[in-house]
């Protein structure tokens, strides 16, 4: 794919598929019933079916393409922020005012909305917070505050990218660890590790934890603002709706984190040191439609190689360079919620990965348990 093609609106439009969420969410909110199945059905079922029909995309753009030529690709990540804000709080306000949905209908609606604010909102926040300009990073913070998970930015940038595939990274799922154990562990450990990382950075600048440059002040302010908006548009009922959708969004995020690095480890070099991150330390998927929907998140190895590389420029790796998942991320997150199925599917792949990249390692217990000395 050449640089001229990337400047074409037609090449960017497939990534705008996220906007399809809007009419589906509106229809479910207004009419309830079976209309509520459209949003989760689209995210979880239709995308996976289309992946099977459309197939894989292993074509790579020129990674040296100038950023100015990516206007139409960047635009969707910027547009989505106000779109999600208006849509989310309109849904909360409408449902709170009318109380027209049963408890089961509410659950399905909020699950669908959480899939949207997770699969679109947090994924776009992930793209934005990796960029160098302050405006985009602020937009990423706004998206994360809509699901009350603002610390994710600090944890992801300062902890995950440095310690991925080592015991120091909470969101690298360990071999044989179920998603449910992983989820509880991440909720407990990640806010603490994010705080410690920011405090350590401030200390290197000669500042204390209460310094105004601590981003946790910004996180707190944005999250309190979102809570206040939920209260204004829907009262305490609206706040409850807001909290439930946020939980479902975080659930989906951590399911994705679980899938991305499950069982993969960097080689321990002694004295607490590990090898550099390589393409083999992330699970990848080349499925075309889900990569449109997730703005190439599934090209995860290249993201760890070049964290600030814009999503249309992320490179696809072959099976001889990086481990590949049998299905796309949306379908794999479903399997991850069924531990016996997940282990039967993924543990043989992890063992094959070990033999392929690290045949010299015979004792994997320290890697599974994080008991390396130093």
TrEMBL record:
The keyword Oxidoreductase applies. It holds the Pfam family FA_desaturase. Keywords: Cell inner membrane, Cell membrane, Iron, Membrane, Metal-binding, Monooxygenase, Oxidoreductase, Transmembrane, Transmembrane helix. The keyword Membrane applies. It is a multi-pass membrane protein. Coiled coil: none annotated. GO terms for biological process: lipid metabolic process. InterPro entries: AlkB/XylM, FA_desaturase_dom. GO terms for cellular component: plasma membrane. GO terms for molecular function: metal ion binding; monooxygenase activity. It is found in: Cell inner membrane. Residues 107-334 form the Fatty acid desaturase domain. The chain crosses the membrane at residues 24-50, 71-92, 104-125, 220-253. Belongs to the fatty acid desaturase type 1 family. AlkB subfamily. This is Fatty acid desaturase family protein. It comes from Pseudooceanicola batsensis (strain ATCC BAA-863 / DSM 15984 / KCTC 12145 / HTCC2597) (Oceanicola batsensis).
């Amino acid at each position: 794919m050449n640089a001229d093609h990337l400047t074409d609106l037609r090449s960017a439009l497939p990534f705008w598929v996220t906007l399809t969420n809007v009419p589906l969410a509106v229809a479910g909110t207004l009419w309830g019933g079976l209309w509520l199945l459209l949003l989760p059905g689209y995210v979880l079922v239709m995308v996976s079916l289309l992946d099977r029909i459309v197939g894989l995309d292993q074509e790579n753009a020129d990674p040296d393409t100038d950023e100015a030529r990516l206007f139409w690709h960047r635009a969707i990540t910027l547009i989505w922020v106000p779109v999600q804000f208006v849509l989310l709080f309109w849904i909360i306000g409408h449902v709170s005012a009318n109380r027209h949905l049963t408890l089961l209908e509410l659950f399905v609606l909020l699950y669908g909305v959480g899939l949207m604010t997770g699969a679109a909102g947090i994924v776009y926040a992930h793209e934005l917070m990796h960029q160098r300009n302050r405006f985009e990073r602020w937009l990423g913070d706004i998206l994360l505050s809509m699901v009350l998970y603002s610390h994710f930015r600090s944890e992801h940038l300062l902890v995950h990218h440095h310690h991925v595939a080592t015991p120091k990274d909470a969101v690298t799922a360990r071999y044989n660890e179920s998603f449910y154990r992983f989820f509880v562990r991440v909720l407990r450990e990640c806010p603490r590790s994010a705080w410690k990382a920011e405090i350590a950075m401030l200390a290197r600048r000669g500042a204390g934890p209460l310094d105004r440059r601590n981003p946790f002040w910004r996180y707190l302010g944005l999250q309190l603002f979102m809570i206040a908006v939920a209260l204004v548009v829907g009262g305490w009922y609206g706040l409850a709706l807001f909290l439930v959708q946020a939980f479902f969004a975080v659930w989906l995020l951590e399911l994705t984190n679980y899938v991305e690095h499950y069982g993969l480890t960097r080689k321990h070099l002694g004295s607490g040191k590990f090898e550099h991150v390589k393409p083999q330390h992330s699970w990848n998927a080349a499925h075309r439609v889900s990569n449109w929907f997730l703005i190439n998140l599934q090209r995860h190895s290249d993201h760890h190689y070049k964290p600030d590389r814009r999503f249309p420029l992320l490179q696809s790796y072959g099976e001889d360079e990086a481990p590949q998942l049998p299905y796309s991320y949306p379908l794999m997150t479903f399997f991850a919620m069924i531990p016996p199925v997940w282990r039967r599917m993924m543990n043989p792949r992890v063992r094959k990965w070990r033999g392929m990249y690290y045949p010299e390692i015979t004792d994997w217990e320290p890697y599974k348990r994080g008991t390396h000395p130093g």
